[in-house]
Each structure stands twice: as structure tokens, then as C-alpha cells.
Design a protein that fits this description.
It contains eleven helices and 17 strands. With 349 residues, it is an alpha/beta fold. Strands 3, 4, 5, 8, 9, 16 and 17 form a seven-stranded mixed sheet that branches. A six-stranded parallel sheet has the order 12-11-10-13-14-15, with helices on both faces. Strand 10, helix 5 and strand 11 (199-203) form a beta-alpha-beta unit.
Amino acid sequence: MRGIVFTGERGLELMRFDDPTPDAHDVVIEMKASGMCGSDLHQYRRPKGQARATGIPVPEGPVIAGHEPCGVVVAVGTAVDAKEARVGQRVMVHHYQGCTQCNHCRAGWQQLCQEVPVKVYGNNAHGGHANYLKVPANTLVPLPDELSFSAGAAIACGSGTAYSALRRMNLSGNDTIAIFGQGPVGLAATQYAKAMGAKVIALDISPQRLERAKAFGADHVINPGSNDPVAAIKDLTHGRYADLTLDTSSNPDARVNAIRSTKVWGTMCFVGEGGEVHIDVSPHLLRRQLTLVASWTFSNIIQADCARFSVERGIDVDKLFTHRWTLDQAEEAYQLFDKQVDGKGVFLM
């Protein structure tokens, strides 16, 4: 089979690998769709030889990219129960593997395992940008028949991350939420927040992304490059500021502005990976009784719930995708995605 490998400094290569065969507790998935996620760019841009992420062991040899895998089970290991997986089943992958036995793992949060170095498929273990993917059966999340493989790929990270963050903030139809960044995760947050009944203020410096936010139901859009976003949000909320704010951008200025535009007793949530934020604690946090939370992807249970919610509310997850690629187009796909001015891309096999 062939798989996309990031070689560092915005380089990649379509390499050949042996077709995988399942060990006792594993399955092999024939890939149908593998989404492109903003966090891929950290690996795509990294200097040659640099570790893939802080605290994650560097694997030996090339590693196939892609952590939004979706496809069909084509082989199962001898110890896999039929209730876990069966040949022909449509599945997403919860793209982490911990010890499987600690409280975090047993609750579905394998990425939070403290007992062993966590495998992250597409980072320090082979991911979905390939023809096939071998993973433990306990990482599988069923894909409802009503959803396409592309939709399943989005839910497997970007859209699922947005949905989980909104749940973590207890968003309701009574709330006004300001979402900083309208890339794939931010746009998915706009999409789900509207489906949950909230009023949405979408912010981005890209006019293209703001237009897409409007199409996804944003009630107001703000370009921080040409407006004071804090003042604009204050004006739109009649001086109260937003009940909730969400940063998906990782931009230091956006993070500060998200905090400053959250109301007294409000909640601000970090989703975007990396970067820093510097804030004057007393006026912007302490004296406003502000709650700061962080939300890192989701559990396998929340991933399944995101899929269910998408079906029951008739959410067009596929609408997120602006580009569909083949593996042979990988170089062109990531060169475009690297500019971060357009929508979401997906590899279809």
C-alpha cells in the first residue's frame, strides 16, 4: 500500500508500505476518507529531525500521517469479539491508544492515559492517509449509515473537537458565543452552536472564511484585522459581552481578545493547539469571576454522540469540505492547506 509521510520543513512523500495484517486484538480498515486537520500543519512544518510533539516518543522509521480516519473493516484479529468489530462494518477511529485499563482509558479518554506513552495515530503511529490502517479494535467508533465517510472523517477530529468543546462549556440556546477563528474547527463550532440554538458571532481575518461562516449560520461576523473585536462584541451584546467565547486559532492576540470579550461570570475555552497567552489576571479574570477551560479533542463516547447529534439534527457535515483529493495529490493538497485561508480538505480512497 501507499501512505503520505511528512518529511519535515513542508515536505512530504508518498511512500510504499506492506499491507497490514491484524494482530490478535487489532482490525484492519480499508480507508475510504482521511481528513486534513489544522494540527497536521505542526508536523508538516516542523524542522527535519524534530520530535513530533512534546512528550510523545519519536518512532523509528517513517510514519503515515492523518488522524481523521474513516473506512470499512476488512480483517479482524483472532481475539476480536463480534461485538467489537466485524468485517464490512463502517467505522471511524478514536485516534489514540493508552494502557486501556486506567480510569481515563476506561472512560474513553485514552489520550489522557498517564500509565504508558500514548500512541497517536497519524503522529507517532501510522495514520489514515493510506490505503489501509491497522488499529486496536477498542479504538473503533461506529459510523451511522446516514453519514458519509467524509463526514465521519471530520467527526473523527475537527468537528468532534468543536462539538466536545461546546458541550464542555454547557452551551444552550440562551447563550451568545463568540468563536475566534473560522478554520475547519471554528466553522464546525459555528455549525454545531447554531444547531444547539445559540447566537453565534464568528471572527476571522480571512474574508473567505467569514463568508463561509455566514453560510453556516453565523448571526454576525467580525474581521479583527479591520475592527476592534472586543468593542464590536460589546456593541453586538448591548454592553454585556459574550456569554461564552471559544478560541480555535491559537493566535495570542485572539486568545486575549476572547478573554476580554467574555462577560462577567462567563466562560472562555481554549481549543487551538500550541502558542501562548499573556493576560492581566485581576481586571480580566479575577474581578469578572471568569471561568477558563481547555478542551482537547473528545472521548470515544462523545465522538459517537457527535455522530448521533449530526444525524438527528440533519447537520450537513460534508458542507465543511471545500477540497477533495486523492493520495497522488498530497503535495498540492498540503501546499494549499498550509496557507490557511480556505476550508477543509479530505483524501478519498
